[in-house]
Every structure is written in C-alpha cells, then in structure tokens.
Amino acid sequence: MSHAVTAAPDKPLVVLNQRTIWLIFGALMASMFLSSLDQTIVGTAMPTIVGELNGVEHQGWVITAYILAIAIAMPLYGKFGDLYGRRWPFLVAVGLFVVASVGGGMAQTFESLVAWRAVQGLGGGGLMILSQAIIADIIPASDRGKYMGPMGALFGISAVAGPLLGGWLTEGPGWRWTFWINVPIGIAAWFIAYFALKLPSHRTTRPTDWGGILTMALGTTGIVLLTSWESLGNDGYDWSDPMLLGLLVGTAVMVGLFVFIENRVSEPLIPLRLFKNPTFTITTLIGLVLGMGMFSAMAMLPTFLQMSAGTGVTESGLLMLPMMAGVMLTSIASGFAISKTGRYKMYPVVGLVITIAGMIWLTRLEGGMSLWLFGAMIFVLGAGMGLIMQTIVLAVQNSVDPHELGTATSSNNFFREIGAAVGTAAFTTVFTSRLSDNLEGVFGGLPEGAAPAGGGSGLTPAIVDQLPEPLRSGVIDAFAESLAPAFWYLVPLVAVGLVLALFLKEIKLSGEAGMVARGEAVMEGKETDILDR
Fold first, then answer.
1. Burial environment of residue 242 by CB neighbours within 10 A (0 to 12, 13 to 18, 19 or more)
2. Cβ atoms within 10 Å of 416's Cβ, excluding its own
3. Cα gap 381→335, rounded to integer Å
4. Are 134 and 521 in contact (CB under 8 A)?
5. What pLDDT is recorded for position 9?
6. Quick one: pLDDT band at residue 55, thresholds 50, 70, 90?
7. Which DSSP letter does residue 109 get?
8. 186-204 confidence digits (pLDDT tens)
9. Which of 110, 190, 239, 458 has its CA 20 to 30 A from that of 386?
10. Using CA atoms, how far apart are residues 37 and 184, in angstroms rounded to an integer?
11. Which residues pair with 204 in a beta bridge?
C-alpha cells in the first residue's frame, strides 16, 4: 500500500554515492551508540545509585522506565519518519536525549531519576529506530547485511562498554557522570547528524492517528505496571485490591481500543494488516521473546558480579567483555555471510539454540565462582544474540513496501522493547522478591544496630564488603541464590522463539535501496559498497 506523501518540490534527488553513504552511516553509528550505551551504562552503577537514593527494592525501574519510554516512542518516530521524512525527527531525538541526560545527572531522588530516564528513553527510541530505517533507505537489502553486522556489533560493544564505563565513572568522579558523559557526546552527535543527514522531507494530507498514539501509550504503560506490581511496593497480587483491578481493566480497555482504532483509521500508527505478512509476524514474535530474555539477563549480571562474586565496580564491567566478543564475532560474520549468499534463515535458528544453551548455563551461577567460567557463560549468550538481532530486522525490512520501512521497522522493534520492558520488570520482580526473603533470613533475629541501616534496602557493594562474617557470606549467597534460578523462567520464552524461527520463510533480498524504490534518490554505480573497500 503506497502513501500520499511526496518529496518537497524544491528538494533535488539525493545522489547515493560512496561519500554520502559514508557520512550518513557514520552519523547513524555515533547516534546509535549513544542510545544503546545508555541501556547498559547504569547497570554497574545501579547498586551504588539505588543504595544512595534508597531504592533497592525498586531498582528495576531505572532500566524499565528507559525501555518503556523507548517502546512508546518507537512507533511515533517510525510513522512520522515515513510521513514527513527522518531528518528532523532524528535531530529532535538527539536533543531530547541530551536534555534528559542533564536532568538525570542532577537528580536528587530516586523518583526524579526514574522520570529523567523515561525522558531519555523518548529520545533513545528515535535514535535506534530511525537509524535502522535510514540504513534501509540508503542500502539495498542484498548489501545491507554488511552494514547491519557492524550495527549489531555496536550493540554488543555498548552492552559491555556501558557497564565498563559505568563502573569506572562510579568509582572515579561518581555515578552522576554516567549521565553527564552523554552531554558532550550528544551535542557532537547532533551537529554531525545536522550536517550529514541530508535526507528528503515529505508533505502529507494524511491525518495523525492521535487515538492510536494515546491508547498505545496507556496500554503499554499498563502492561508494564502490571508486570511490575510487586516491585512497586505492593504486597503481591491481591485481586481484591481495587487499584490492581482497575489497572488490569484499564489496560485491557486501552489495548482493545487500540486494536479497534487501528482497524478503522486511514493512517494507523501500527497497521495491523502488517501481521498478514508471515515474515513480519514471525520475526516480531521472535523479537518479543528475545527482548524478554536478552535485556533481563544483561540488566542484572553486573549486580551479581559486584554483590555476589565480590568484584569491584569497574572490574564487573571488564568481566562483561566476553559477551561483547560473542556478539561482535557472530554479528559481523553473519552479516557478511548473508550479503554473500543471500540466505538468512539459518542464523536466527542457530542463534536461538545457542542463546537457550547460554541461559541454561547461567542457572549455575554461584557466589565465588571462577570468573573464567562466568566469562565462558556470557560469551555463549552473546554469540547467540549476535546471530539474531540484526538478521530479523533485515528480514522484516526486506518483506514490506518501501513506503512503510519506518513503520514496519518500528513496529517490529516496538514489540521487542515491550518484551524487554515486561521481561525486565518480571525478572527483577522475581529476583527482588527472592532477594528480600533471602536477606530477611540473613538479617532476621540480629540484635538492634547489628544489621545495616535500612536492612537490605540500603546495601551497596562497599557496605557488603565491610560486613563481618558470617553476614558478608550470607549476603553474597543471598544474591547468587536469588539470581541464578530466575534464569529458568527465561528459557521457555526463548524456546518459543526457536520454534517460530523454524517457520520463517526466506525471501530473496532486494537489490534496490528504499529511497531509490520511492523515487527520492538515485544510486551512483556500485560505489556505495564502501565496506568492500
């Protein structure tokens, strides 16, 4: 289905040559790194942050708020990018991210920190989704694997560079610099994008789907609040609680209204007809279950290393390097292999098998374990994820109308981020519930003044290290025994993704870039294939 959008008559066609693509690709890589880095940079700093701001029981919200905001923002950027062009939405996203980083660095309460993380996510969602869509605009699917591979490796680098940098900053100038560091990088990224992203703008007579936007945002928020109910400080799922019942009913109503609206408006935010496309449906469901497992695992591993394995903050970041190596190795290798052979189905299948093996292995985590063994565990997990993430995005983009590249890409990523938000919330709820019980067993019965101030809610790595025996060993074991069994909850989810991947249909990769297919650009020979040079 084509859309009533036209390039501005005063704008000439974009010439996609070697120089143009190199500039655009560089700008996108810088901006994507900024966004993906912030999903993990607070990981190693989190025990210190929540300890200082007295939010241990609710620590999952520092990550969940960011991921939730990304999920809400993604469909907006995808749709508006298709309708109006991607340049200005991209610049707005970078600006939002920088402003929110300033706010996060100045936060004095746990609640204000969570709020600024949400604003940060509103910018981060645009950086991630628009980058993927712009790559599809300028690179044919048949060559895109060579570019998507490095982009996937970028996520792997940020997954480890984030905890490493977060640890170094926390032990050095302080955890607030995990936010302040984004400001100069973000300003530089904004200027690079301003001069490099010379993309066409559009005009459209299509109405904005305000009803879909509102119901999507409220429904998504309700889903995450429901999965985070216990971590919000409530005593379990007491269905006689009118607030819980109201939230459940309200969420169901919003989801129902969203489906109703999207089936009737002329320009839906997330066109439900996309689900008639088997490739879109299968890859979206794979992304959903992978998001639930992937982000949950990455979020809590630095905490385990600090609290249970006895490593320092910076050292815990360094010990995540094997995961980065695994993601980079398989992401780059599979990207080049896909471009060479045109075949892509096998990579998510193999990747999901490896990911399941890695998660099963992580259920053997224990306090004081060999750090070489831990590195092997997360290398396997990273190797599996590197085969999946960018491959399913490529499959989606190759299977839809070029006019809907942004909408399809953002919709696919939206469900992955929903999975990440729900998975992280549910995983941390299981973890913190177990941890509270285990810590109560450690500190229960101690005479007044013998336990740390605030009990378990104020624990930081430094406080744990200063505890006398046997309290110190008791706390270390409590963290390990709370985290390791929780990985069993993720294994069935990833197994569902594996079954779905077996039904993925392989479609011949297109040899035409999205902007060329829409008549917005012309390709200058074969010089755009810069990664071959």
1. exposed
2. 29
3. 18
4. no
5. 45
6. low
7. S
8. 888 888 888 878 787 777 7
9. 190
10. 14
11. 5
The token duo for 487 is 């990985």
Among 300, 293, 248, 297, residue whose Cα is nearest residue 419? 293
Picking from 241, 159, 233, the residue whose alpha carbon sits closest to that of residue 432 is 233
Strand residue runs (E) in 421-507? none
Residue 350, C-beta contacts closer than 8 angstroms, at least 6 positions apart: 387
DSSP states of 142-198 as a string?
HHHHHHHHHHHHHHHHHHHHHHHHHHHHHHTT-TTHHHHTHHHHHHHHHHHHHHH--
* E strand or H helix that includes residue 59: none
Cβ burial of 249 (10 Å; 0-12, 13-18, 19+) is: exposed
Q: 14 pairs with which residues across the strands?
A: 521
pLDDT-based confidence at residue 386 (cuts at 50, 70, 90): confident
DSSP letters spanning 63-98: HHHHHHHHHHHHHHHHHHHHHH-SHHHHHHHHHHHH
The 10s digit of each residue's pLDDT in 130-166 is 888 888 888 888 888 888 767 767 766 776 677 778 7
Residue 479 CB partners (closer than 8 Å, separation 6+): 303, 304, 307, 308, 367, 435, 438
Do 77 and 130 form a contact (C-beta atoms < 8 A)? yes
Please compute, for residue 111, the number of CA atoms within 13 A of its CA located in the half-sphere on the CB side: 1
Statement: residue 298 has pLDDT above 80: no
Q: Which residue has the tokens 């996520």?
A: 155
Average pLDDT over residues 222-236: 71
Query: Which of 486, 489, 498 is CA-nearest to residue 354?
Result: 498
Give the C-alpha separation, 440 to 246, whole Å: 32
Given a contact cutoff of 8 angstroms between Cβ atoms, the answer to whether 285 and 497 are in contact is: yes
Rounded (10°) angle between helices 278-307 and 405-443: 30
**Eight-state DSSP code of residue 458:** G
The larger pLDDT score, comparing residue 235 to residue 276, is at: 276
CA–CA separation, 37 and 329 (whole Å): 19
Omega cis (within 30) before 75: no
Q: CA 282 to CA 397: how far, in whole Å? A: 13
Report the interhelical angle of 60-84 vs 278-307 (nearest 10°).
150
Q: Any residues with CB less than 8 A from the CB of 6 and at least 6 apart, and which?
A: 202, 203
Whole-angstrom distance, CA of residue 167 vs CA of residue 46: 9
Q: Parallel, antiparallel, or unpaired: how do β-strands 202-204 and 14-16 relate?
A: unpaired
Q: Which two tokens stand for residue 511?
A: 């040899």
At residue 400, does pLDDT exceed 80? Answer: yes
Question: 3-state SS of 232-277?
Answer: HCCCCCCCCCHHHHHHHHHHHHHHHHHHHHHCCCCCCCCCHHHHHC
